């Protein structure tokens, strides 16, 4: 099997990166920030900082990159709505200044971008504290092009408890339940990464459409609360959803994280629920370091090569690289 052509033919979708934070001084300028300041560089120029820019996405054959929009990670973030709007504004300015990145809001637009040889950029919200307790803000974000929403970013907010608050046993609040209903109505993908286990089950009970775990792995392979139990993975699959493999080393392996270790998670999920519910969700630019062999977006073809080495079929490899995410997008968003 020609891995180079296979990777080129596939629609490669990465459902999570935090690159927009690297472009915002509010995140990069504080002394203790983990983000390299690329606010003056932008995404159109190849850089040796971080993990993602448009030239490296093109080199790595990433056809659709989902860009997270969030506020400061805090129980009481300062100006969360304004911060999110600043990030969205920066995203659109990057698209305008870089001819090889285009905003998309549907699966058809992803395919159109691939045919044109440019990167499709999809906006997601990571932590709905950015709506500041107002459900109507979800409609505003939809009009601004956001098509995926994670209710929490690990810490409790007005909608739900995150994995950091898992000891409370709290699930969705009434506002969180209203948000699930509105997201379903709007046709926005609900993201269950970062929510605690109780909240996950609440979402699955309420959601009318398939949901995504945009950047979460298998807890059976690596025991971390941000990863999903086998029971959760089965329920997600029965819901018609999908999950994107997170490259954060602590989610991959407790000692040494490698590209092969990421594919070990794929192996387990495929053995558990088949090849139709797993994909990629790197968390690039949101993790302090990466697994060996996945140093930045240019290394994505290594996933294809490893799947070929493990004798996955061409059809299943294309599903894992992006076909499953594209199917979910088509079902929920259009």
List the keywords.
334 residues; single chain; 12% strand; alpha/beta; TIM Barrel; six-stranded parallel β-sheet; three-stranded parallel β-sheet; 14 helices
Structure explained in plain terms:
This protein has 334 residues and is of the alpha/beta class. It has a single domain, classed as TIM Barrel (Alpha-Beta Barrel). It is 41% helix and 12% strand. It contains 14 helices and nine strands. It has helices spanning 3-9, 19-22, 25-28, 54-59, 80-97, 107-116, 136-143, 174-186, 197-206, 230-238, 249-252, 259-273, 301-309, 314-332, and strands at residues 13-17, 64-69, 101-103, 119-126, 146-150, 189-191, 212-213, 242-245, 278-280. Strands 1, 2, 3, 4, 5 and 6 form a six-stranded parallel β-sheet that branches. It has a three-stranded parallel β-sheet with strand order 7-8-9. The longest helix is centred in the last third of the chain and has 19 residues, at 314-332. The protein is globular and about 50 Å long. The mean pLDDT is 95.
């Amino acid at each position: 099997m020609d891995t180079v052509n296979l990777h080129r033919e596939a629609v490669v979708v990465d459902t999570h990166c935090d690159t927009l934070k690297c472009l915002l001084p509010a995140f990069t300028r504080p002394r203790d920030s983990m983000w390299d300041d690329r606010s003056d560089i932008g995404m159109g120029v190849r850089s040796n900082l971080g993990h993602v820019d448009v030239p490296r996405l093109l080199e790595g054959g990433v056809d659709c990159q989902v860009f997270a929009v969030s506020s400061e990670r805090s129980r009481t973030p300062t100006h969360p709505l304004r911060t999110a709007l600043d990030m969205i504004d920066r995203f659109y300015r990057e698209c305008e200044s870089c001819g090889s990145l285009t905003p998309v809001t549907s699966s058809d637009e992803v395919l159109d971008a691939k045919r044109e040889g440019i990167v499709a950029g999809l906006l997601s919200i990571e932590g709905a504290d950015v709506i500041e307790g107002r459900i109507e803000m979800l409609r505003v974000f939809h009009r601004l092009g956001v098509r995926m929403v994670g209710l929490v970013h690990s810490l409790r907010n007005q909608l739900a408890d995150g994995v950091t608050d898992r000891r409370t046993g709290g699930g969705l609040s009434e506002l969180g339940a209203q948000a699930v209903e509105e997201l379903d109505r709007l046709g926005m993908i609900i993201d269950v990464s970062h929510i605690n286990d109780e909240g996950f089950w609440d979402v699955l009970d309420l959601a009318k459409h398939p949901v995504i775990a945009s950047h979460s792995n298998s807890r059976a392979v690596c025991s971390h609360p941000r990863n999903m139990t086998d029971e959760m993975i089965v329920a997600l699959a029965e819901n018609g959803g999908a999950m994107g493999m997170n490259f954060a080393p602590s989610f991959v392996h407790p000692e040494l994280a490698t590209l092969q270790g990421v594919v070990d998670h794929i192996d387990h999920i495929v053995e558990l629920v088949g090849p139709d519910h797993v994909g990629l969700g790197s968390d690039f630019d949101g993790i302090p370091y990466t697994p060996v062999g996945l140093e930045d977006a240019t290394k994505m073809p290594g996933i294809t090569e490893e799947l070929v080495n493990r004798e996955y079929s061409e059809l299943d490899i294309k599903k894992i690289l992006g076909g499953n995410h594209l199917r979910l997008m088509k079902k929920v968003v259009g």
